[in-house]
Amino acid sequence: QQQVKQSPQSLIVQKGGISIINCAYENTAFDYFPWYQQFPGKGPALLIAIRPDVSEKKEGRFTISFNKSAKQFSLHIMDSQPGDSATYFCAATRTGGYQKVTFGTGTKLQVIP
Amino acid sequence: GAGVSQTPSNKVTEKGKYVELRCDPISGHTALYWYRQSLGQGPEFLSYFQGTGAADDSGLPNDRFFAVRPEGSVSTLKIQRTERGDSAVYLCASSPQGAGNTIYFGEGSWLTVV
Fold this sequence. Notes:
By secondary structure, chain A is an all-beta fold. Chain A contains no helices and eleven strands.
């Protein structure tokens, strides 16, 4: 059972454009929603995360929007750069314990000059 | 280095063989995780250690898989009688003690079973 659904599978964006990746979750017990960035041959690295008590979190060019009632959240990358080209994973977990993270299937982003 | 170290980075083995994958966590990190990432998929949880004991190994796919951390630092993931379906990247991660802390992933061990 896939508990975190992610779309699109791949995304091509022009430099300077906005990249948008969407995710939906099923388990209402999740209370921490991180996004990970993974470059080829590397492990995933935490990019930004949000808790469901806020609807938006912004860090630099990266923004998470969160809709608790719809059980959906999304990542927006503003002013996308070629260096942002990577695979992005949304994820969900429960705090209060350890990080048993449930990942989405990933979005391969390519930012073209 | 300061990051999570995994060896080997690549391992090709024949079906039916035994393999060991090693993880050296960030110094001082008490929590250690194993995840498995198949091609084109997100990582999937395998096991979690807090100290020496496997606090949660519910993600291990079957009894051919076993993870140990005898001294509370280095961990080894052991796979017996490997099958072609075991081919994947095995990721190790560590974090400081405490809930909600960022986990830091290593670069993974890419296992290919032929």
